């Protein structure tokens, strides 16, 4: 039987030492300055023009999508939306550092990662309208994306639940011997949930190749981070779990890209978790149900608007000669058009037939669900006008 | 008296309770300065200070754990869970702690002063995670009380009762009615007793039983039935645990028929307990099987929400089936 | 065939499953080297290595969260919760995640390969927190299956079914029988279908229904009743969700009477669902009210455990009341 | 509206810095060496002879109680027991630094704190036999103590639940303006529960005067701490929450006393939480249901037996001239006698009348419980022999 000594690495002191905050001083990785000029001391990661264009294009597309969808919600065309304006770099930059076989388990504000993976405008619209072409069959609210082909796990609303799940998913990848990691996104608010604690600790102990990426955007709905935790952000917790940790400027897509590359490298090589804290700011309202003017100042927002991640990266590209103003204008215009025309087109796609109300509860519907469906269909047939979305296709 | 919607009624009850008893504290996610995502706690922080109305970190198990300790200490916590769908991380603290605290300590300590408020229910395009009606889970927890109001007047009176009551109460608010239901509400304090159902309408052919937002639906169905000459007795259960079996049994002994409706899935829903008890209590009076009109045994779907819901048409049909058994 | 107690039968099932499919992984608190506090997972780590059978940190929400992710990835997790009393921290992961995963993703992803094993039930001087029978909470969760074996033979066959089944299964093991129940068990693989009740004994006067450790008690009571000339039909429900309504209804249509027994508190227990469904299905056949003999609506007490339990005497008395209604 | 900046205290770096374990190096406070001689550099806290005697006496009493109760369980006289052998200093030393008005919320291995508060042998026996004199009415298993007069909260078995509860309790004390704190005990295993995370974070954010005392005794039943966490014990987590933290030698009662004094001082003065990690070892089996020979070596145990906290403190007292060998022998003998005679006496005390089966579920039993009790009593009256413990006193 192995002899264990849980004191082996611990030194002695003979005075009452109170360890407190401020001990760690975790700096934030920034490569590009706000104006897009690299810091003198910074070593930029390798990046091709093509990759840079994809990153910028994705960030710009997402910004447009957000604008249009918020407007569509105001017009009553969709019931709900949730924008990531101001945070595009955290999710697009990190997704760009991954491989397609890596699993993405996200919270809900990571449309950037999804778009980077190749989710199309049409697919976005299908989800928003909960229609029958949506692979999740329209069962959840708008923005709860999920698509197996892109290794993007279907989102669920309960916060934090994906964190231990990501540890388990990554453990499975490791056991299967895959050359793949899992990335798990969450907000600094969600990091208060017990599941965060469970997920990080288990990943550390069970050595799961998972990247935890916390978007610390200063708010959880109306709750500012100073009422969410008293420590030094989320990064300072990594040490406690024995999880390697990187803090990064979430508005600097280059820094996020570099940090995530490094994290993936470590996670795969050492088969262990890495925590990234991306410092950013939610410029948008929490969702279309929210109005931030009730809890924060315009000045504060303005200060952050000046740190726009999209502009910063565009400026850098410009300095590289990779940015054509005219072409970009065209791209933006086309994207806007595409969103609008897809929106219009998809609006008309019907929802799933009523039979789908009972599928996927189990692999095969058991007797009680079949009975309930039969009753329901008979009822709809009796009152077709009351259930117009399904009565036409019983 | 003033015209209030249900949110205003809840807010008014909280103001009353906090004014009368400085031990009352209100907390939860976003309930502080912002007043909660539905604004049920508006202005409380302004009025009573940050120590008595405050935001918590985003952790339901923490909120209820904290509230349990606070209650055991002798304070009067009113904890908010932002949506009933998010109460499950706190389930252990409720089942194993809140509800068992008094019993395990032989009455030395208790969480009796705790009230947990949470919006529940469907009909707002909320899909799987903004629509659930989890009352049945809590009705299987000895030591808890579970209360659901149907309108603003009931909300204020029952909430004030819940806060005063020396037992932990889960107070579930039908969020679909938050702004939709408006009525006269006294500005002064009043209480409506817990554990008592209310017969809203006398009738002779069938007893209809529900709670919360489902009362409206029941009334609409009853109206359709009345037009066909079926006389309906309508009962609002109000308290799910302990529930008022006598009022229901008395009604069923008169009408000989019972229909129960809730939004939650049928299997294992609270209608099953009522049906099981009443078939036993009223066996010789029953003229047709007790009927349940409930949610389907599926998660709560978005696109098929309309089809999923136990609406007035489904209830109307069931009433007819029952009466013509 | 070999003589095994229930722990050995469970262990044998796990060995079979892990041998046949290398994706099967067994984990939980103390299940690794030590083999679990009841030793149900003895020798698995030795046989299959530390990667496939391992201790987790002490966090039930983490265990099930981790298991959910692992299942969604395509592995076959068999997670242990040390006592059913400690499953509640994982309730959110089960209600909101495990059970809804397939539905919310339109069938793209699922936790279908997950099995959760947990010992449940009283009679071992365990008091409030080592005695609970929480099956009813899980029977109100669409998407879950809930299975409870009554003896070693059933345990192995049903557990192998549960692990194979492409739906998440909560497998509850009556810990009172772990060593007490001994019987012949095939050393080879075999499965017993989920969702099917078993009629253990034909009878004509009354149908007696239970599951798990309560089957013994039922049989003892039935024997007493038979001695008084009452012919009892005995049914083991085995699967609580989905449950086999047809087998129960067929029996009740024959006997005209139904008694259901479980250890869990009466109010909102699963007997209520059965009673509610059967009174509807068999209304015209019932000669007396459906009777429930269950735990009291209190936490599970230590000193008064004997009095709390729905024992054979209480059931015997209830049978007589039922038959002489 | 207040302007917030959640980046205000964060510096920049321009290279990918991976922060990892070992950064913190949290030493362990030790005042007395294993032989009881103070470290040269150590400043001992003030301690009167009377206090020292009470501390030693309590530790010795608890050791005897543990021995006798484990034996009683083996004889089948009680159903269950759980010893704290080897860990006496962590709980007695900390309790000694508190005031009687401070609330104790414990896990289950803190009989030392309870005995220090004045819980009598008779009271211990009443609880062990679940009899009618036990203030908790015998509803829980042995060792689930609780007594209001001593400000010792009734223990519950689910692990970790008391942690956020302690934060709430302490918040209530603060709001009531009391000169009191709450101490919350738990094991390093329990610290993996989500409730730990919630409790520490809430205490930090809401500024609750609570002392969290983690007994890191190397094991959670069979699970060694290396399979419980990968960080540097529990202390390293304190920093992440912004909670002041002290690591202490849990086998040095003087160090535990000094650390807890300091923690109480801070908690009261600053109205904030303090975390103490007491490094110790569970020499006993987990409980009478456990046999540690299945998961750890005798050698390992022996190494720790040499660090006996009781002997260490006795040696120090001896060096002060505060220890009389003869008198101590007498005390030990008397304690043994007292435990045995109380055990014998209390064994015969009846359990509560059956009426108590339904009290305390609610403040007043509702109709359904009254109905169930009436039925039960009628049933017992019919079969008195089957329920011998209650049928005599219907
Ligand atoms: C378990 C749970 N509790 C509460 C909510 C309601 N809710 C939705 S988003 C949100 C705030 C989340 O903040 P954060 O994690 O920081 O992410 P951000 O919105 O800033 O991206 C809350 C409280 C939820 N979805 N799930
Ligand atoms: C929620 C919960 N899960 C599991 C258990 C079973 N259990 C009882 S004690 C224990 C180990 C606790 O270890 P630790 O916290 O280190 O305390 P120690 O026994 O070492 O004092 C376990 C797993 C429990 N009581 N509660
Ligand atoms: Mg945030
Ligand atoms: Mg331990």
From TrEMBL, chains A, D:
<feature type="domain" description="Dehydrogenase E1 component">
    <location>
        <begin position="58"/>
        <end position="352"/>
    </location>
</feature>
<dbReference type="GO" id="GO:0003863">
    <property type="term" value="F:branched-chain 2-oxo acid dehydrogenase activity"/>
</dbReference>
<keyword id="KW-0560">Oxidoreductase</keyword>
<dbReference type="InterPro" id="IPR029061">
    <property type="entry name" value="THDP-binding"/>
</dbReference>
<dbReference type="GO" id="GO:0009083">
    <property type="term" value="P:branched-chain amino acid catabolic process"/>
</dbReference>
<protein>
    <recommendedName>
        <fullName>2-oxoisovalerate dehydrogenase subunit alpha</fullName>
        <ecNumber>1.2.4.4</ecNumber>
    </recommendedName>
</protein>
<dbReference type="InterPro" id="IPR050771">
    <property type="entry name" value="Alpha-ketoacid_DH_E1_comp"/>
</dbReference>
<dbReference type="InterPro" id="IPR001017">
    <property type="entry name" value="DH_E1"/>
</dbReference>
<keyword id="KW-0786">Thiamine pyrophosphate</keyword>
<comment type="similarity">
    <text>Belongs to the BCKDHA family.</text>
</comment>
<dbReference type="Pfam" id="PF00676">
    <property type="entry name" value="E1_dh"/>
</dbReference>
<comment type="function">
    <text>The branched-chain alpha-keto dehydrogenase complex catalyzes the overall conversion of alpha-keto acids to acyl-CoA and CO(2). It contains multiple copies of three enzymatic components: branched-chain alpha-keto acid decarboxylase (E1), lipoamide acyltransferase (E2) and lipoamide dehydrogenase (E3).</text>
</comment>
TrEMBL record, chains B, C:
<dbReference type="InterPro" id="IPR009014">
    <property type="entry name" value="Transketo_C/PFOR_II"/>
</dbReference>
<dbReference type="Pfam" id="PF02779">
    <property type="entry name" value="Transket_pyr"/>
</dbReference>
<dbReference type="InterPro" id="IPR005475">
    <property type="entry name" value="Transketolase-like_Pyr-bd"/>
</dbReference>
<keyword id="KW-0809">Transit peptide</keyword>
<keyword id="KW-0786">Thiamine pyrophosphate</keyword>
<dbReference type="InterPro" id="IPR029061">
    <property type="entry name" value="THDP-binding"/>
</dbReference>
<dbReference type="GO" id="GO:0007584">
    <property type="term" value="P:response to nutrient"/>
</dbReference>
<dbReference type="InterPro" id="IPR033248">
    <property type="entry name" value="Transketolase_C"/>
</dbReference>
<dbReference type="GO" id="GO:0009083">
    <property type="term" value="P:branched-chain amino acid catabolic process"/>
</dbReference>
<feature type="domain" description="Transketolase-like pyrimidine-binding">
    <location>
        <begin position="4"/>
        <end position="180"/>
    </location>
</feature>
<keyword id="KW-0560">Oxidoreductase</keyword>
<dbReference type="GO" id="GO:0003863">
    <property type="term" value="F:branched-chain 2-oxo acid dehydrogenase activity"/>
</dbReference>
<protein>
    <recommendedName>
        <fullName>3-methyl-2-oxobutanoate dehydrogenase (2-methylpropanoyl-transferring)</fullName>
        <ecNumber>1.2.4.4</ecNumber>
    </recommendedName>
</protein>
<dbReference type="Pfam" id="PF02780">
    <property type="entry name" value="Transketolase_C"/>
</dbReference>
